[in-house]
Model the fold of this input.
Amino acid sequence: MEPKLRVINAKKTGSLSHTVSEIWQCRELLYFLVWKEIKIRYKQTAIGAVWAILQPLFTMVIFWFVFGAILDVQTSVPYPIFAYTGLVLWTYFSTALNASSNAIMGNASLLTKVYFPRILLPLSLCLVNLLDYAIATAMLFVLMFVFNIMPTVWMLLIFVPLVLSILLVSGLGIWLSAVSAKYHDIKYIIPFFVQLLLFVTPIIYPPSSIPSYLSWVIDINPLSGIIEAQRAFILGTQITNWAPLAYSALVSVALFFFGIMYFSRYERQIADVI
Done:
């Protein structure tokens, strides 16, 4: 289904309210961009959506061998489940950030031909990867059955870390997509940053294994509270300290609106600098 086109005033000064209004007005176009990307992604793949399972699964196996077998890292549940619960959300975050941050440069030819809210490009790529997250989460239930871990009522709150991850990666992706349009070397820095972030987030190791003098690195990372909440809600363990999750929520919302505000102020210059 083709999206309905709406006449939008491109000369209007960018603002947060105006940009949010444009996103809502062009929600059908956003849906179209998401669906187009999904079809392109899986059209010429031999195993299609199975890749959404293989990526976190193979990563879990590698870290299981290194941290579980060689380093003998102690976790409260079997290490494969411990790692996979974090890697499911991490895979969504890292893939969405890498894709959305390059959304403007990857569609440079389109931006110079027709006007539409440019913010839809990075935002659509953040939403596209939710399909992979859903598929990988289905595999998580299989692993829980294998390791005899039953879901609890806490599982109903799994949407909380997911929503916060969407806000966080959307804010960062929207902001970085605008920055990379002006400074093209940003696209080389982001993959390195994402790889580094993996090791400063308690995904493949428990926070208790971090020396106390380095705990501040985990504390200032908003992903830490999100990943820990994801793990607690899935495994049914009780959260004794809600402060990290509250901090993550505050930072995620702030970065989301910051990304939109920055993009809205810079949007009119994008076609001139790419």
